[in-house]
Amino acid sequence: MKLHRTLALTFFLSLLVGLPLAAQWAVTEKPDLDAIYKIKDEGLQRSKVMEIESYLTDVYGPRLTGSPNYNEAADYAQKTMKEWGLANVHTEAWPFGRSWQNQRFVALALTPRAYPLIGYPKAWTPGTNGPVTGEAVVAIINDDSDFATFKGKLRGKFVLSVAMRDVPAHFEAPGHRYTDAELVDLSKQPEAGRGRGGRGNFGGAQDFNRKKTQFWIDEGVAAVLDFSRGDGGTVFVQSPQGVSRDPKGPAQPAQVTLEVEHYGRIWRTLDKKIPVTLQMDIDNKFFDADQNAHNIVGEIPGSDNADEVVMIGAHFDSWHSGTGATDNAAGSAVMLEAMRILKTTGVKLRRTVRIGLWGGEEQGLLGSREYVKAHFADPENMQLKPEHAKLAGYFNVDNGTGLIRGVYLQGNEAVAPIFQQWMEPFKNMGMTTLTIRNTGGTDHLSYDAVGLPGFQFIQDEVEYDSRTHHSNMDVYERIQPNDMMRNAVIVSSFVYNAANRDDKLPRKPLPKPQPPAGRGRGTAQQ
Ligand SMILES: [Zn+2]
Question: Could you report the per-residue pLDDT of 101-149, keeping only the tens digit for each?
C-alpha cells in the first residue's frame, strides 16, 4: 500500500512539473494504480489475445457479414464470453440482405504454357458452375463506343478488362511505425477543412458500371478479370462497386481479381498475338434464407452506477480473400481480451461495461449504425432514446495490429485533459499522442453521429495499408503479439477509468438531424 501511495504522489508531481500541456490543465483524474497494475499484470503475463486471434482467423476466418463463417465465429465469441462469466451475452439481428461465401476456387492457364493462377472471386459474384475452359481476350470498355467493338465476340471468354500497369520494385519496407516527429505533426490542429475524412461519391461512374456489368452478362463471358494494387502474391479484393445484396437485385457476371504478375503474363502473351487458354472452377454460394446479420454483445455489470454504460467495440466482419486478421480480428480480439482482463482481475467497475462486435462494417458501418439507432438515437431525426443519456463513452479499435500511440479526439476538446492523464501510465509503452482531428471510416462514427463520445485510437500502421488491408495476406502471421497485448491493456485501463470516474465523458453539442445518405450498397469502409 505504502509503495502505491509513493507512486501516486510521483504521478501527481510529474503532472505538476512535467508536460507543459498537462501543466495547463487541472488534475482531475485519480488514476488507480493498483487496478492498472493488475490490468497490466493480467494482460502482459497471462494474455489470451493471440489465442482469440487465431480462432477468429485460422479456425473461423474469413468472416464476411452474414456468412456461415461469420455466424460460427459469432457462436465461438459468445461461448467464450460466457465461459469468462460475462453477462447478457447475446446477438442482435438487423436486416442485411443475402450473404455469400466462396467454397472453391481453382484457376489455371492451360496453353501456351500450363501454370497456376493466384486469384480471388469478388464477393457477391456468381461462380462458374463447375470447371470452365475458354480463351483469354482483352476487352477494355472505357466509354459507350467500346460496346460496339466487342459486341458478340465474348461468349465463353475470360475477359482482361483493364490495361496492365507497371509494377515498381519496393525500395521501402512495407512496415512502418510512427516516428516521434510524425506523432507531433499528427497532434497539431489540422488546417480548416482538412482531416475530415470525407468519402468521394461514385454517383456518375455507377451508371456506366451498371451498363458494363449488364454487357458482360449479355455477352455470356466466362469471367471478368482484373488485378489490384499490391504484388508479390498480395491481392486486394472486395465486392464489385454497387453490387446488390437483394436476391432480386441486378445480376453480376463471374469476376476474379488476379495476382498482377499472373495477369501481366497473360496480357503480354496475348499482346504477341499468341492465344491463351484458361480454366477456372469457382463455387460461390449465396445465402438467401436468413437475410439478417448479427451484432454480438456481452457485459460486465457495474455496481453503484450500473445503469450507466461504457461501451467498447470493433467490427467482427471482414473481407474474404485472407482470414481478416488485421481487419478486423485484431480489434475484435483486443476488445474481447479487454473484457476478459477486466473480468478476470475483478477490478471494481461502477458503471456497466458492454462490448459490441459489429457486422456489416465493410458494407458501410451497417451493424454499429443499426445498434446506435436501436439503442440511442436515429441520426436522421435525432430523437434521443433513454439509453442515450446513460452512455459514458465508446472506444473503437479498427486500424490493424499496430500499437496504440494515442487517441483521435474527434473534435472533442473537453476530453483532452482527461485522456492526457489516462495515458500517463502508458507513456512507457509509446502512448503519447492526442490529436483533435477526426478519423473516419469506422464504427466510432456511428456514435459520434448522434452526439455520443465515440473514439478511435491512433495506431502504428505496421503493414496495414501496404500489405493487409482487405488483402489475401491479411492473415495471422501479420499480427504483432506484443502490440496486441499492450493494446488490450491500454483499452482495459481506459475503460476502467471511464467506468469509475464520477462523471461521464464530456460531449460535443448534439448534432442536427442528418438526411439519409445513399449508404449500404457495397461502399467499402476501413
Ligand atoms: Zn476495418
Answer: 999 999 999 999 999 999 999 999 999 999 999 999 999 999 999 999 9
Distance 104 CA to ligand 1 centre (A): 25
CA of 410 to the centre of ligand 1 (A): 18
Distance 315 CA to ligand 1 centre (A): 7
CA gap 279, 222 in Å, rounded: 9
What is the reported pTM?
0.92
CA of 367 to the centre of ligand 1 (A): 13
Where is the domain boundary, 240, 266, 285?
Answer: 285
Task: Spell out the residues 6+ positions from residue 143 whose beta carbon is closer than 8 angstroms to its own.
Answer: 208
Distance CA 239, CA 257 (A): 10
93 in the same domain as 106: no
**206 is in which domain, residue-wise?**
101-167+202-285
- Using only C-alpha atoms, the chain has a radius of gyration, in whole angstroms, of 25
CA of 269 to the centre of ligand 1 (A): 38
Same domain, 402 and 321: yes
At 84, list the grid cell.
469468462
| pLDDT tens-place string over residues 434-469 | 999 988 899 999 999 999 999 999 999 999 999 999
Percent of the residues in the chain that have a pLDDT greater than 90, as a whole number? 87
Alpha-carbon distance 424 to 409, whole Å?
17
Q: Are residues 262 and 304 in the same domain?
A: no
Task: Kindly report the backbone phi and psi dihedral angles of residue 126, in degrees, each rounded to the nearest multiple of 5, phi listed first.
Answer: -75, 165
Which chain residues have CB less than 5 Å from ligand 1, an ion? 327-328, 398, 526
In a domain, 18, yes or no: no
Q: Give the chain's domain count.
A: 2
* CA 362 / ligand 1 centre spacing (Å): 7
For residue 395, the CA-to-ligand 1 centroid distance in Å is 14
- pLDDT lower than 70: segments of the chain: 1-25, 192-202, 517-526
**Are residue 376 and residue 431 in the same domain, yes or no?**
yes
